[in-house]
Prior knowledge:
By secondary structure, the chain is an all-alpha fold. The chain has 6 helices and 2 strands. It starts with a helix and ends with a helix.
Amino acid sequence: xxxxxxxxxTCFGFFTYKYYQSTKLDHKNWERFIKDFHYSIDQSISQIxxxxxxxxxxxxxxxxxxxxxxxxxxxxxxxxxxSDFIDSSLYYSTFLRDAPRIIYGVNSIDxxxxxxxxxxxxxxxxxxxxxxxxxxxxxxxAKDKMQLNQTDKVNSDLSTKEMNKIIENxxxxxxAAMYQNAYK
Length: 184
């Protein structure tokens, strides 16, 4: 009887320790996701900052447009993979999935919205800059909400619920809504 009790206590201790390790690893993965996502969004914002700056050379627009597309897709895949592999209750952002589409222009069925790709004429027009500013504003708002008290330090203790609120409030527009916001 004592051997059975010792065996039960040992098994209970072993499984409790394994559960603790698993929970600790899940928390570490979540923190890593928050930091990676924040950094990735920051890289996208930096690319847009450069494209809107006076230092931007229109001769390089094709390379910079592709770089922006890659940054936006990386943002999308980070959050999508976090939803798939870390926490399935995390929303993934259709805005980040669709944002690269703005780079290639829009041709609406009604003919009212016809915007060329950003690099079609080799320079950024006023409308294209407005669109980039709108994208930049939405990304910056999301990034700011992921920081501690308006510092540059990432709040890695955000809960899934808080992260979903950030996604819902700042990263949920589709690209058509982004065009509308840019051209108000």
